[in-house]
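Consider the record:
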Amino acid sequence: MRHFISILDISSEDIEGLVDLSFYLKMKKRFGKNEKSLRDRNLVLIFEKPSTRTRLAFDFAAQELGMNTTVIDKTSSQLGRGEPLIDTFRVIERYADAVGIRTFKQKPLEEVSKLISIPIINALTNEEHPCQTIADLLTIKEKKGKKNIKVAYLGDGNNVCNSLLVGCASLGIDIFVATPEGYEPNKIYVDEAKLRAKKNNTKVVITNDPIEAVKDADVIYTDVWISMGDKEKDINKFKPYQVNKNLVKHAKKDFIFMHCLPVHRGKEVTEDILESYHSVVFDQAENRLHTHKAILLYVFEL
């Protein structure tokens, strides 16, 4: 048994293994051969924040592996009345074999994990979104391969950006992040990404210049400018980072556009780019299903 809580605690080798396993599971499903190696195990999914893709992907992934799933949120549990997270987890571990949670702060989740005897999966915190990163890396592998790739991430240096930095560096992918001043990604993740990139002789660049980031990029990635739970931001600072036809002309002609969804059309990306042949956002969303299967197998060490 092992947890899947922080990308910082997952080795480069394990990240690559998860991407490869995800691709294998995707191919098995395509040929009508679902893996049932977690038959009759129970998964509880807790959502303290709204979710569409993560909720659906984990629910279907678990069922296709043979698991039973139960979903609870703050409105349907005592979490909404202030029950401590640790008490909720202590009850769940008596009923279930694993738990996935979308919550707010990363640190309490890490502290709870030291006291719980079943695997915990981080389905998003304010600091990280490691499940999304595995799906992103699978999408990049499918569309662009693994070598000599440059990813440009534009906008807010949020949880998705933090995790993507470490994920790309782990696989030897150059990543350039362009944000407004004051919205750079968390230094902890930047430092870890640079350590991993050094081993792979690749680049991690943090800049305030969107053109520098996008120049000759194979992948352009953005996310919403205001994430769930964020305080109000000065949107005007983000407008130069909008993915539009003027910005993408600096990328390679065959670049792909990625977004973890949901998207605010006309804000972080224009409609013409989102609906163009460059866009792979729905392939990216589909990959959540296959990578969530891989993560479930990973935490059970299967």
